[in-house]
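Reopening closed ticket. The problem is back. First fold of the pair:
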Amino acid sequence: MPQGTAGRIDAPVRRTAHAPLFAAQASAADARGGHESLGVQQQRCRLCSKRGGLLIALEGRPTSLLKCKECGVAFVDPLPDPATISEHFRNDYITDDVHLEKVYGDLRRRALERIAAQVNKQRRSGRILDVGCAGGYFLDRYFDSRKWEKFGIEPSRYALRRAASRGIHTYEGEVLTVELPDSYFDVITVAGVLPYFREPNCELHILQKALKPGGLIVLELPLGATQVWRHTTPIGRMTGGGWRSLLESPHLFYYDGKSLRLLLSQSGLRLRGLSPSPGNEQSRLLHQLLFRSYFWLSSAVSALSAERWMLGPGVIVTATNS
């Protein structure tokens, strides 16, 4: 059995980075005089690596949001300091069971149910790895221990203790630093975590190598365009988009269908399907009603267009190790 609960690895985190953590990069942005158009045009896209196709989607200090005309991805520039956010997420961001079970469990229930349904429809048993497993709510609730051997990657020491108490083999750290065995897992789930990967090409390739040949990977994440809409328009904020600027969001990358397809292809994974994800439960009744209506509209559009059109609020991606 690979290194698990008995041998954890501390590592830079990939889940989030709140506004104060971005401040660590302020001097880097100031040193280069901000984001002038010429400088942006000379940069390479962090996903497709092409030069000359970047636009400033949202400008700010110390960070801006850049969008690639070639592959469609948007990303924060500069990225936050990894050492600063590593310490925060290892020790500070989850400190009690109420927060752990509600934020990473109950409020995610509708999305997690759909992810589990995708897995159980295609696989009945085996080894399953959940990237960003938090306290193990997802694996514990939806996968029978008599059929599944469960593993999780998570940076929070507090959350990992909870996951281990549920019988989950745990890796402390993140994808770039934990030692995963090759061709070992039947299923890997990445629920709500992909936008926090600092090096998505590299990290998804690591997960691809850890999958058995023909193994299944399921990604769930918010659509980038939906996130921009919910944070920058009055109607979007009515669906629970929040008051803060998109540049204060914890996400590092924002994906659309085109950029997701490219990322999968670069990582040696074969796309099997895209379907809408309902996103998180909303705290206010009006927000919840609007959000659910939005999701059902998106589901209808996706079905009628044979998955060519995806409106969000999130997307579930299924792929296999080709």
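Second fold of the pair, where the issue appears:
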Amino acid sequence: MRTCNQFVPALLSANETAHRAVTTSATDLLHENEMKKKLTKRRHNRVSVHAGQVEFVKVNIGGWQWRDVYQWLLALRWPKFAAVVAAAYIALNLLFATLYAIDPNSIAGTTGGQWFYDCFFFSVQTLATVGYGHMYPQTLYGHVISMIEIMSGIFLLAVVTGLIFVRFSRPVARIAFSRSMVIGSLNGQPTLMVRVGNQHQHSIVGTEFRIMFMRDEPLVEGGDFRYFYTLKLHFDKLIIFPAALTLRHVIDKSSPLYGATLESLQTSRALFAVSVSGIDPVIAAPVQAQHDYSWREVRFGERFVDIYTQSGRGQLTVDYGRLHETESAE
């Protein structure tokens, strides 16, 4: 009896331990499967980002957030933005028209024609809170749907109004860049030059200019590495930027472009990024524009033509039509 009494608790304890082990193993397996699903879903997320002539495809960065939708809507061009708003408006009215059509007695004062058409146009009136008075909800179900739609219409109107205001009030740099960069002799020294022009009808103040040079360089360990150089300019800041000017970088022994040729730029996959930033004094907001040039857009032995002419009354005429023209520097 003693042996039997001692064996029963031991058996129960062993069963309990085995049950816990099975439960723990199942929980770990479930957690592992969930992690695999999340990782698999994350691998499928791809985001394309264009930086000038280069496209970067980002993977494994997680899913979209609501804030990304707002940024996406602001980045759309006006025709696409109008198409998205129109599609959302029609889809929302179709949704509420379907809800009204479920109850054939939900709306009073209909035309007696196509029931769904009446529901759709009643939805249009309700969403815009127009209320002509001819059609109106007459059942509790119809009143509830109308209340939800009116709240949705107020929210939609507020969101679209905010988006349109931001799109109209957003400052635009309106900076023109020459189609090509040139490397030619200037004041007896080889110089990299690029022309930029202010297309506003007023000056930009507190303007800063930058040129970044990028290329592949070999490593001692083998392979190539991408290097970035900020080129030193004759001037990189202006208090007032009224019209057009030429940015210049002298290619001396301290320059990363020293001894560069078109063939060496091609081999190193050279890329130039030009940036202009400043403040629009009319709306007191910062503006920024950038443009990039590949080695194909670098022209050796040339310089930009003069686009300024001076009149007798002290005026300077700037011909923007010749902004891109070059001539031989020899």
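Update: turned out to be a display glitch only; the data is intact. The chain is about 40% helix and 30% strand. The chain has three domains: 1-60, 66-169, 175-328. Please close again.
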